[in-house]
Write a structure and sequence with these properties.
The chain is α/β, with parallel strands linked by helices. The chain is 39% helix and 14% strand. It has a seven-stranded mixed β-sheet with strand order 1-9-8-5-4-2-3, sandwiched between helices. It has a three-stranded antiparallel β-sheet with strand order 7-6-13, with no helix packed on it. Helix 1 packs antiparallel against helix 9, helix 2 runs parallel beside helix 9 and helix 3 packs across helix 4. The protein is globular and about 75 Å long.
Length: 381
């Protein structure tokens, strides 16, 4: 198998001259931060997903932290989430003093299993953070039903799913709060950045205060004068800049094309990898349309003469940037020190043992896809 001349990463941003020019214009404007572009971007995202409000943050992790704060998570509270995610999801719970509780995944969709959520609910449970892993929406109707029955807050981690749909609606308007990430490999990018969408005015007010030191205007402020503000709580400096927001606004003009191209690539992978015994292609939950942030297959090593690690290294040697998403969160040394043990989510651990992420991003060509497929077939034959 011939090595590619250039490295093909698993994900990559798409930046045009229009994006660059838009950012340059902001750099020449009076506002680099705390200016008008933040609100413009927030309104654009809220309109796109069909939510009443959106609050932008400096990054997705900060946005999750803000959502946990707005949900009232404090020491002693438990929050149920999936172990197949980046550590930021459960870390945000720890930041607020809460305890992450990991529920196992569904073997077909690799998202959190609603039945496993039910098994984990206790009198201490305060919220659920389901993850739209790889861009595929979770079974939100079931999860929201569970939450309503037990009076829980649902914070949907949509870091992968901006542009995806559930039951005909864009992800971002159905959970109590939804987080989207704008890291460079995500559906659109602001360099770094994140946002929370919500239909709750209460959460909206709390999120805006939290991202800016807990500071805001009060009735007393109005009495004192325009210059006066008050700090009501211990917030953080999690503000997005106008530079970031401007790039995001420019990217929003192409979000539908980005998602369409990701779906085209996923379809091509499905067609070319179907029927290979050693490979399991990803399944989709009925009634959903994934945003295909990631395309993750499972490698059945028992049918091969080599382990996944060897396939991973050989693909990388051919300049094909495969990856593995994700190490179960509770396997990390920090979580082990907190008392979590391996084996608590066997389906998730089985997923991790076999998972391999193939490159997928809008500027990939069909020829790139063929390169990936041919290399993979050659190495597992």
């Amino acid at each position: 198998m011939k090595k590619r001349e250039t490295f093909l990463p698993y994900g990559h941003q798409s930046i045009t001259e229009k994006d660059i020019q838009a950012v340059v214009e902001t750099l020449r404007s009076p506002y680099l931060t705390q200016g008008p572009k933040i609100e413009e971007f927030e309104k654009s995202v809220a309109h796109y997903v069909g939510a009443k409000y959106a609050v932008a943050f400096s990054n997705g992790t900060a946005a999750l932290h803000g959502a946990c704060y707005a949900a009232g998570i404090v020491e002693g509270d438990e929050v149920i989430t999936s172990p197949i995610t980046f550590v930021a999801t459960s870390n945000a719970v720890l930041y607020c003093g809460g305890t992450p509780v990991f529920a196992d995944i569904d073997e077909q969709t690799y998202n959190i299993d609603p039945n496993e959520i039910l098994n984990k609910i206790t009198t201490k449970t305060k919220a659920i953070i389901p993850i739209d892993f790889t861009g595929q929406p979770v079974d939100l109707n079931k999860i929201m039903g569970i939450a309503n029955e037990h009076n829980l807050v649902v914070i949907e981690d949509g870091a992968h799913s901006f542009g995806a749909t559930y039951k005909g609606k864009k992800v971002g308007s159905q959970a109590h709060m939804t987080m989207f990430s704008f890291h460079p490999v995500k559906p659109i990018t602001t360099g770094e950045g994140g946002i929370i969408t919500t239909n709750s005015e209460e959460y909206y007010v709390k999120l805006r205060s939290f991202r800016s030191h807990g500071i805001g205007k009060t009735p007393y402020s109005a009495e004192q004068g325009e210059w006066y503000y008050e700090m009501m709580d211990l917030g953080y400096n999690y503000r997005m800049t106008d530079i970031q927001a401007t790039l995001g606004l420019s990217q929003m003009n192409r979000i539908d094309r980005f998602i369409e191209r990701r779906r085209e690539i996923a379809k091509l992978y499905n067609e070319k990898l179907a029927g290979i015994p050693a490979i399991t292609i990803p399944e989709q939950l009925t009634g959903t349309e994934s945003g295909w942030h990631l395309y993750s297959i499972q490698i059945n090593s028992s049918l091969l003469s080599k382990p996944r690690k060897e396939i991973f290294e050989e693909m990388r040697a051919l300049n094909i940037g495969v990856h593995v998403h994700y190490i179960p969160v509770y396997w990390h040394p920090y979580y082990q020190e907190l008392g979590y043990e391996k084996g608590i989510c066997p389906k998730a651990e089985k997923w991790y043992d076999h998972a391999l992420t193939l490159p997928i991003f809008p500027e990939m060509t069909d020829e790139d896809v063929v390169d990936v497929v041919n290399a993979l077939k050659k190495l597992i034959s």
